Amino acid sequence: MSSNPNEKPADTAAERLLHLLKSRGPHSAAELGDMLGTTGENARQQLSKLARRGLVAQRSRPGGVGRPAVEWRLTEAGHGRFPDTHAELASRLIISVRDTLGEAALDRLVEARGAETLAHYRRELADAGTLAARVARLAEIRSREGYMAKWQEEADGSLLLIENHCPICSAARTCPAFCHSELQVFHAVLGPDVSVERVEHILEGARRCAYRIIKQGGS
């Protein structure tokens, strides 16, 4: 069997395990087995194969009492299995625009992309009446765009928009203004009476990006 970490696993269970670790974070083999509808031992066998490819690794679960529980997580190569759309090309183009045309031109490019995105999202959310409906629709759109997005209601009544993957991560690292622009788009499309705060950020080392959304003055 090839040890190339970029080779696509032929086994569907292995692919599902990678997706689970990407979308739900580190878990034990037993927990992953439950999610797959199989046994922890079967999941552990698949995880061992993925580990030999360098796509997953074990670690002790933080905060455990007694014998440390072991959980599995994606490695950097494992995260790399999820596409960063045209990553190298996008980064080079951004650098070329900045070097050739200047920072102001790059700012205009980011603003134009933000305006186009906002117009598209507003059309898509036009018939979504409540805040929850708008956030749910936004999560659907972002998932189609490759962000592996979902949303949930928190105990305090706030809403959490979660993005388990960033398909433009390389471009955003080269030009962080893309992240700022996306946050502005979320503010604009969800309404002037809505607070949107990024509480987790991949570029700051988090596993995912997450946004806490609160309707000002009550729900």
From TrEMBL:
SUPFAM superfamilies: Winged helix' DNA-binding domain. It holds the Pfam family HTH_20. InterPro entries: WH-like_DNA-bd_sf, WH_DNA-bd_sf. This is Transcriptional regulator. It comes from Billgrantia montanilacus.
